[in-house]
Amino acid sequence: MTIHSVVIQKLLSTNAHLGRRVTAHHFKIFSEGSRNGLSIIDSDKTLICLRNACNFIGHLARDNARFLFVNTNALFDEIVSQMTQTVGIKNDTTWRLGGFLTNSSSPKKFRGRNKKLNLGAIQAPDCIVIFDTERKSSVIQEADKLQIPIVGLVDSSMPSDTYEKITYPVPANDSVQFVYLFCNLITKTILYEQKRSQAALAGKEDKSRTRDDVQRIDKTATKDKISVLPYENLQPAPEDILETKQLLDKLVVLKFNGSLGTKMGFNGPKSVMEVCGGLTCLDLILNQIESLNSKYGCNIPLLLVNAPNTHDGVLKVLERHTNKNIHSLVQSQRHQRNVSDLPPVSDGIQDDHDGMDSLNLAEVFSSLMDDGKIDVLLSQGKEYILVLNSDNLAHIVDPKILNHLIQNNIEYCVEVMPKSYESEESNLLPNKEEFENLMPKKNLKFTHTMWMNMNFIESLVQRRAAKESLTISKLFDQSFAINVPKSRYLPVEATSDLLLLQSDLYTFTDGILTRNTARGNLADPSIELGPEFETINDFRTRFKSIPSVVGLVSLKVAGDVWFGTGITLKGKVDIHARPGMRIAIPDGTVLENKIITSQGDIGGGSL
């Protein structure tokens, strides 16, 4: 689903497309006909008008313009009040007085029974935003006389003379949901422009300072942020097979195998743990690379850097992959202690990249250079190296990312995902793609995947000669990042990941992981298994067979729970066995939107 489709769905969810029963002639440019007696507003044109209005508001906010927000609908009062408080604009209500604009030069006096009110002359606003234009035609007439631009919601029954006076009309149903969306966009637009203005002002003040002071200030301002490019903004990979082959021939894949599966009760390297059908994590990664080599006729070598306590297990898997361009080596004794202390990715690490602090990249690449492998790869025309430090079963080699790095001559970048996705409304911000997107590092999840230019390795080794420890964590702090979709990160960190990979949500065709097209939701189900399922043996014992999860949204299991065969899970399922209680899900059971706390709840207790 594209971003445009998501945004249109958001507009439809607010009923923005529902007009009135009457469609004025001048409004037909925004109409897509009628249904059940109601005019249907074209959501695409609503989106275009929304962007135009936000662009205009942003342009005025850049110059500290004065805004006046007009609303007479009591349902919108709290929404408008929160918006004005957030952006720091006074919620002026003088528009409720007739002639407040055209007669603004004359002070007004009002005398009541208990008080006397004096209103001095007001300063005309630079823009008026009206949320219920049909009720405030008098404000529109006054603004038109003074040639003040108006941004307003318009509906299908609005008179022509009123509609013509609105500078930036936004055709939509004035529902509470849409007004909330509209105010949210205005808030984000004004806050963004205010932030830009403050940054520009700070830049002017910094000109009088020394260069060292400026560098120190910039470093402090950006030390907690990283430049992130959305994956969707990348240019598509070449469609021609020959061009794709030439692109992939410039790539090398390097994978670290230093994590043990002890957290999941597996005595051995996590990369050689069986996932499905006798295939291990390492088998699947090797099959992915071999599939690309066969499809495009390219030659992508794989370098495996193993810890001393994982090397033997990795070699046993490689016995099934003979006659392939695979090179396996043991990490040098210089950093053997650090590697043995390196915690698995699934351990409780606050920052996802902190667990990689033990691994000195400069040391690793120095060993490769000493063995002559780097020189050999450069002589073969290799330009980029893909560094993996997790058992990611997604399609790790992406020609689209590789093409972007080569075209822009980027030295190194990391792949990240937001820890909590922002709301879809942010996609409507004007000119979002025109500015550098700096995101706080604390909001990003590092996927343990890094792309690096081969020529950059030499500078890493030089840092080692200078006795500078360079970890992947430090590179994460300094590098450029690509915000990748969730489909590019399928780690094996817990038994809940095995449940997904072994279910009908994924299939293994010729050793390649393929997602089931029957699932319409792009996101995988959220699965939380209790400590009773923590080890692989417990997991296999409690599941006679893996349930069907194609229609599952979320699953939470806690306590002494056992699953039979042929079970289907749909929607949101929560199974919680109290202490001392056992719950057994019978064979062939279908659970859809269920909360189960006892054996008797299996036939009822829907959400």
From TrEMBL:
One of its GO terms (cellular component) is ribosome. It catalyses: alpha-D-glucose 1-phosphate + UTP + H(+) = UDP-alpha-D-glucose + diphosphate. It is an enzyme of class 2 (transferase). InterPro entries: Nucleotide-diphossugar_trans (IPR029044), Ribosomal_uS2 (IPR001865), Ribosomal_uS2_bac/mit/plastid (IPR005706), Ribosomal_uS2_CS (IPR018130), Ribosomal_uS2_flav_dom_sf (IPR023591), UDPGP_fam (IPR002618), UDPGP_trans (IPR016267). PROSITE patterns: RIBOSOMAL_S2_1. Keywords: Nucleotidyltransferase, Ribonucleoprotein, Ribosomal protein, Transferase. Pfam families: Ribosomal_S2, UDPGP. The keyword Nucleotide-binding does not apply. One of its GO terms (molecular function) is UTP:glucose-1-phosphate uridylyltransferase activity. Its EC number is 2.7.7.9. Belongs to the UDPGP type 1 family. Belongs to the universal ribosomal protein uS2 family. HAMAP family: Ribosomal_uS2_B (MF_00291_B). This is UTP--glucose-1-phosphate uridylyltransferase. It comes from Forsythia ovata.
